[in-house]
Amino acid sequence: SFRPGNEADSFLLLGDGSRPSLAEVKSSQNLFGGVELLTLSACDTATGGKGGDGMLHTRPFKLYVFDADGTLRRSTVPGQPCPNLPGDWELIPGVRERLAEIEWGPEGASFGVATNQGGVGLGYLTLGMARRLLDEMVVQAFGLKPPPGSVEICPHAPHSGCACRKPHPEMLLRLMRRFRATPGETLFVGDMERDEEAARRAG
């Protein structure tokens, strides 16, 4: 059953990413100025704040799949879209904090990564280095080692005609099979049109 939290810990997540607390909502006279229709909803796992373990419980999905570059991390090398070496990347600001709001593990949600790493096929880095950099990204972002089989990589060069490179859905489908999640139980987070298309094709 729903357990309301206090007004400081409970919040609304708005479309622009802001998160006013319920205390701020109650005290504001013009928070929704100009809005003709406001619809609010809550999933049945919501607790209205932090639970006894200090974790903010929001788990509407069984499996979260993330793109890597431009979604969880970014290159620190000018003109280079993807990292090729340690030190070539950093987490996108705010990623670690947002991921910490979700309960991961046996009692929570599962996560995976589905990423095109065309630099491998082009000879900029080895597949082993690509995996190392992605594993390090997962540890920094989630505070956990990646579970076995949770990082899906397409190592093929762009326009190689492979069946796994996004927008093909194969990496997403493999992760859903691995974690026994249906499309309706899965959320894919990416930053490119090919990510959106891969999600659409995966269901």
Secondary-structure blueprint:
Blueprint: H1 22-27, E1 63-66, E2 73-75, E3 89-91, H2 95-99, E4 110-116, H3 118-122, H4 127-142, E5 151-154, H5 170-178, E6 186-189, H6 193-202
Parallel strand pairs: 1-4, 1-6, 4-5
Antiparallel strand pairs: 2-3
Which keywords apply here?
203 residues, alpha/beta, four-stranded parallel sheet, two-stranded antiparallel ribbon
Could you describe the 3D structure shown?
By secondary structure, the chain is of the alpha/beta class. It has helices spanning about 20-25, 95-100, 120, 125-140, 170-180, 195-200; strands at about 65, 75, 90, 110-115, 150-155, 185-190. Helix content is about 25%, strand content about 10%. The chain is globular, with a radius of gyration of 19 Å. The two termini are about 30 Å apart.
